Amino acid sequence: MNEFSFSVPQNIVVGRGTMSKLPEIAKKLGGSHALIISGPNLKKMGIVQRAADYLKEAGIQSDSFTDTEANPSVDTVQKAAETFKACGADFLVALGGGSPMDVSKAVGVLAKYGGNITDYEGAHKVPGKIVPLIALPTTAGSGSEVTAFSVITDHSRDYKLTVFSYELFPDYAILDPELIMSAPASVAAACGIDAFIHAEEAYISTAASPFSDAKAEKAMELIGGNIRRFVANRMDAEAAEAMMTGSLFAGLAFSFARLGNVHAMSHPVSAYFNVPHGVANAVLLPVIAEYNALADHGRYLKIYNYISKIPAYEGEFESAMLVEAIRALSADIGISSTLSEAVNNASTTGTVSKEEIGAKIPAMAADAMKSGNIAVNPRASRQCDIERLYKLAL
């Protein structure tokens, strides 16, 4: 067993209708003026205004920044930080999926310490506590409300940089399942599979511990048993609660055990081709699961039983069964089956040929090798291995 330690310094509230607790929690933080960071769709849906109304009723002023995009950029972080300073806010509310969460954490750093978010790239470069932050996830996917990471795209390098610091943990997380019950099926699928992969990669990571295992196993149980049902009917309250809680546990698991080759390789796919993060992960997962099978020590059977419709037992299980179960799950919830299909579904400039994608593979592999997740993948990987895995996924 690895030596391990853990601390969960946040305050977390879970339950239907808990968004109404936002002003109560803001007052606990001593906040009087919020900047709500969200995205354009949540603004159109009126959810940003709901948050603002809750705060207003309690005498708390708010402004909003809703220009957060998928795979948010360095420029977006800078604009949001300037908005925070200009409006005189003293705390942040992250409302949305992983993108608003990542932007909010980055803004919390810049608003307190200045500079550019690229100055804090890497591990433990944030000098102290950031601006107070309350996180309200509206997807069951990123787990960012309980993680110490902010992932931001630097378009000047076609690169997704990561800021890792335990100072990035939001002070409070409010998980209201009602906030995910209006998600489109495609979003529910991409976010849900992302959450499952967080748990799966944390579970097989060489940095796993009994603490992270416990969270990962419960996350896979909740997500594996409910993702099909939730994608089929997002208004299924029981499934929504299970998905949101599973995503939370998955986020806790990978905060302490890290991830693996799937996430290391998916970030460059999103940076180069703007493929949604969860979709990029799902396309890569079966290929990497097959690659990692050589290092399995009994965990593949457990993972299989969390997602398969038919349970298996020791003596009859083979690793290829997990690979096929992963492909079946993605097919059931409408996720692309190949990297080429995912890239073309995300393209806004016409068809992207396999040759065009293939030409980017050496650069994507080089970027993937910079990720700390490669180091804790259960099977050791060289750049040539990563290039081969991309080609298999293509």
Structure description:
This protein is an alpha/beta fold. 51% of the residues lie in helices and 11% in strands. The chain is built from 16 helices and nine strands. The strands form two sheets. Strands 1-9-6-4-2-3 form a six-stranded parallel β-sheet, sandwiched between helices. Helix 7 packs antiparallel against helix 9.
Share of helix, binned: 40-55%
Pattern of helices and strands: EHEHHEHEHEEEEEHHHHHHHHHHH
Q: Helical stretch count?
A: 16
The Rg value, from CA coordinates, equals 20 Å
Q: Spans with pLDDT under 50 lasting ≥5 residues?
A: none
Across the major sheet, the strand order is 1-9-6-4-2-3
Shape designation: globular
Please report which band the strand proportion falls in: under 5%, 5-15%, 15-25%, 25-35%, 35-45% or over 45%. Answer: 5-15%
**Structural class, please?**
alpha/beta
